[in-house]
From TrEMBL:
SUPFAM superfamilies per the UniProt record, alphabetical: Galactose oxidase, central domain
Keyword DNA repair: no
Top-rank taxon: Bacteria
Pfam families in alphabetical order: FG-GAP_2 (PF14312)
Coiled coil location: none
InterPro entries assigned to the protein according to its UniProt record, in alphabetical order: FG-GAP (IPR013517), Gal_Oxase/kelch_b-propeller (IPR011043), Integrin_alpha_N (IPR028994)
Organism: Botrimarina mediterranea
Keywords: Signal
Stretch forming the signal peptide: 1-29
Source species taxonomy: Bacteria, Pseudomonadati, Planctomycetota, Planctomycetia, Pirellulales
Name of the molecule in the record: FG-GAP repeat protein
């Protein structure tokens, strides 16, 4: 099956079609579009309206995908989560909670690490929320709940894992007013709660815990509607997970009210990538920060951005490459979604990735992860197998740094991804 990838280099458009190379002179473009086919994943039995792909993660060997409104034997809205072995091209075990009930929303947040996977169910555990821990065989080995949890806390609405540790967001916690929010740090192996993060400057409706990330010794937690200055722009807090002490609090340098800074977050090598889906005049933006000092490094915006792109709704970062999801980005005049790539060191836009077989309303980029050269991106409104049944796509991303022939000696990054597998997996 042929795949076409277009790359702009020094005014040349290089098209790779099934291994063949052709070149033609073109005018430089503001944003380079790279089309990819990817490996489409769906539920074994796709169901209309289940939104498969609303939550995704990968460690490069295994992919994990949640359905936002999925159902199982526990009832509609109980949720469902599937794993996928990337090397064999086969589905792994389905992850099932031991006490799931209708409406739990199990699978709204997922994370995979070594040796455990985490799945959030923000409406489970009598409405307080819970997070479930699974081994690689798909067996539930623990259930994490907040020591002071209460109905409406939304514990498990966001989560991340690093080794045996887990960070769980609870944006509905009310220690400092309704929905001021909190985050909890656990030993996932023992189930012991080690820290509760709830900074004293939180106010009602701050939604601290809306997005969470772990890396090395740092825990990062966003407050999407933080009442800082200006009002409601959002903020991100950085903590030392060993001591529980706060390292820094950061807000965007160009913040405006309603930016929703903190919609998403990812960490790698002490660099944080934070999405602001309504920033940049409504187009959306993403920001790179030094997670140890809280200093802003770069502001990322789409070169072809427009109002309502939802740029920053999801983010991923690894090995100097930043990926940003824009679930309402347009391509060829249709609202389909895209993933934008940036160089972390310079903040320069590399290009954007869109599906070859894109369709109106796919919602591509609503969720995103990148690890060990493999990207997984959610397309929760994909309707190939039922209206908004959803899908996720796997894609290898290979980076080749090429010196640009200019006095600035900037580096361009060529993304020449090849599909991990072709076709849909049942």
């Amino acid at each position: 099956m042929s795949r076409t990838i277009a790359v702009l280099l020094a005014g040349l458009r290089l098209s790779f079609v099934a291994g063949a190379l052709a070149a033609a002179a073109v005018a430089p473009a503001a944003t380079l579009t790279l089309e990819f086919w990817g490996n489409q994943l769906t539920e074994p039995v796709p169901s209309p309206g289940f939104n498969f792909g609303a939550a995704v993660d990968t460690d490069g060997a295994t992919a994990i995908v949640g359905t936002r409104l999925g159902g199982s034997d526990s009832g509609i809205g109980s949720g469902s989560v599937y794993t996928f072995n990337i090397a064999t091209g086969m589905f792994g075990p389905e992850l099932v909670p031991s006490d799931g009930l209708a409406g739990d929303r199990f699978g709204d947040a997922v994370a995979i690490g070594r040796p455990y996977s985490l799945v959030g169910a923000f409406n489970g555990h009598d409405g307080a929320g819970a997070a479930y821990v699974y081994n690689r065989s798909g067996e539930q080995v623990n259930k994490l709940v907040a020591a002071d949890g209460a109905a409406g806390d939304r514990f498990g609405d966001s989560l991340d894992t690093a080794g045996i540790h887990a960070l769980i967001g609870a944006p509905g916690d009310d220690d400092f007013g309704n929905a001021s929010g909190a985050a909890y740090f656990f030993n996932a192996m023992t189930g012991v709660q080690l820290h509760k993060f709830a900074p004293g400057d939180l106010t009602a409706s701050a939604q601290f815990g809306y997005a969470t990330a772990l890396d090395e010794s740092i825990a990062a937690v966003t407050s999407r509607l933080d009442d800082g200055t200006p009002l409601g722009t959002g903020s991100v807090y950085f903590f030392d997970w060993t001591t529980g002490s706060q390292l820094a609090k950061s807000t965007p340098s160009n913040a405006t009210a309603g930016d929703r800074f903190g919609e998403s977050i990812a960490l790698d090598d002490n660099v944080a990538l934070v999405g602001a889906s309504r920033g940049n005049g409504g187009t959306g933006a993403a920001y790179l920060f030094d997670a140890t000092t809280g200093d802003e490094l770069h502001v990322l915006t789409p070169g072809d951005g427009a109002m309502g792109f939802n740029f920053g709704v999801s983010v991923a970062i690894e090995d100097g490459l930043a990926l940003v999801g824009a679930s309402s980005a347009t391509a060829d005049g249709i609202v389909t979604g895209a993933v934008y790539a940036y160089d972390v060191a310079t903040g320069l836009e590399i290009g954007r990735l869109v599906l070859i077989d894109r369709e109106q309303g796919d919602n591509l980029g609503i969720s995103l992860a990148y690890e060990n050269g493999t990207m997984i991106v959610g397309s929760s409104f994909d309707s190939d197998f039922g209206l908004r049944a959803g899908a996720a796509y796997l894609q290898d991303i290979v980076r080749v740094d090429i010196p640009e022939p200019s006095s600035a000696l900037l580096l361009l990054t060529l993304i020449a991804g090849s599909a991990v597998r072709n076709g849909r997996h049942d």
